[in-house]
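My current task is to audit a protein record that another person submitted. Thanks in advance; the entry in question is below:
***
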Amino acid sequence: MFRFLALPAIACVAALFGLLAEPSRAEGPVAVTIVLVNDLPRAEDVAGRGGLAKLASTIKLQRASRQRVVVAHAGNAISPSLLSGNDQGAFMIGLLNRVGIDVMAFANHEFDFGAAVAGERTTAAGFPIVLANVRGADGKPIGAAVPTWFYEAGGILIAFIGVARSDLQEVSRPGFITVEPALSLVERVAPALRQNGVDLVAVLGALTDTEEKALVNSGLVDLVLGAGERLHASFDGRTAAAASSRNAEHVILLDLRLDRYRVETVGGDDLSSMIDGGGPIDAIQPRIEMRFRWSVDFRSIDSLNVLPDTETADEIQHLLLDLSRQLGSRIGVVDSDLDIRDIVVREGQSPFAHAVADAMKSALKADVALINAGAIRADQVIPAGTPVTRRSLVQWLPFESRVLLLRVSGEQIKLALENGVSQFDEHAGRFPIVSGLEASFDPGRPAGHRVTGITIAGRPLALDHTYLLAVNDFIAAGGDGYGVLINAHRIVDLRTSELLVRHLSDYLTQAGTIGTAGAPRLHLVSEASTP
C-alpha cells in the first residue's frame, strides 16, 4: 500500500515530517514507474501524435501493468493554445483531472494570464500542485499550491519539490511575484528532507537548461524531472534527468528500483578502544544499519502507436466544436480594402503584414520585429467593412507560429535582411516583413549586397550594437535561409513563447481596425538611384 502526503510549507518540513518518518520500513526492492509529462498545451493530437486522449491511454496501460505508477506533470499546460485563449486554460485543468495526473508543478505558461488566474487553476486541480520557490504579492504561496508532495511505497519515501524557472517574470505575465532560484531553494530544502526520512528527492518543474544542469551537478537531488523541446534522459550514476517531448508526442517513463537493505557494521570508536585497551576483537558487537540504494531504467512511448482514450477524445472534440463557434467572435474591422495577396505581402506592401510585425514588436517590447512573408497565407483582397474574427487570423496565419525574442547584433540584423531580399525577383516567402526598422534595397545588386541605409528607431544601424529582435519560431530555427539567427541568444524561447495569433488578436482588439499600409518599410530602389 502507499500513501500520498502533502505539506503546506517548506518551513514546516522538519517539524511535520518527523511525525511521518515512522512508517514500516520493509526490506527488499520496490518498483515505482514515473510517467513524466511536460509542455502539453494542446489537447488534440497533431498528425496522429500527442494529445491528451493518447496520454490517457498511456497512463491506463501503465497502471494496468504495474503496481505503483506516479504520473508527474512538469508544467506548461494551460497556455499557449487557441483553446486557452477562450477560458485562460480552465479547459486543460479539467482534462488533466480526467486523465489521472498525480502531481503537477506550475511553470511559466501557467502564469501567462497572471498570478491570480494561476491561483484559480491550482484550486480547480484535483491533484496536488507543487510550487516551492514562487510567492505572490502577499508573500504567500500561489493559490492552493504546496511546496512538496510525498509518495510512499513499501516504506520508502519520495519527495517531489515543485520549482519554476527564476526568470519567470521575464518570460511570462505573472504580475508582481517573487521567485527564489531553484538551486538556492534546493540547497535549503533537500538536506532537511533527507534528515527527516526522505529516501529519494525529485525536483519537478520546467527550468532553463542552465538551471537543470546546476541541479544535476549539485548532487543534492536524485531526479530532475523537467521540460524541453525534445525528449531526453540521462543518468550519471548519482542524478537522473529526463523530459518528454512537446505535447506528449513521445512520453518518457522512469522505472525506478528502490531498495532498503541491512548492513552489519563495526563502529570505528569501538574497534579503536578494543585495540588500544588490549581487549579481545571478538568482543566487538556489530551494528545493524539500514541503507538505501536505487537505480533507474528509461523507456519511451511513441504516441503514434497508441490508440486514443475514447471518453477523453470525445470531450476534446466537444471543446473544439465549442471553440469553432467562439472563433467567430469579432475582434475588429477592415477600414479599407485590405490586399493580402501573396504578391503584395512578398513585396512588403501589405498593411496586414505590417500589423503582424507591429504586434510582435509590441508584445515582446522588442527593438525590431521580423517575420518571413511566407508565414502569411491569405492570398486575397478583403473588402472594406469586413469584420475580422479570430477565425480570420487562424486562417491567414495557419502555421501556429510562436514569437521568440532574440538578442542579436546589428550585423546579424543586416545579414538577416540580406537573406530576406535575396530572392525578391522570385517573390519568395523569405521576404522580411519588419517593424521598428527601415531600409532600402536594390534587387539589381548581387545577393548579399543589396541592403543599404538601415535605421532603427530613426538611428543608423550599428553593426556592433546589441538589439532585441522579435521573430517567429520558423526563422529563428534557420527556416527560409535565416541561418544567421540559429545561434542567437534566446531571451524568450519555444518553451516560454506565445502563439503569434494570440499576440495579433490582442493587438487588433486594442486597435479596432486594420488601416492602410502607409509608407513601405523596406524601400525598393533601382541601381541607377543608388549612390
Observations:
- The first strand starts at residue 2 and ends at 7.
- Confidence is low (pLDDT under 50) at residues 1-24.
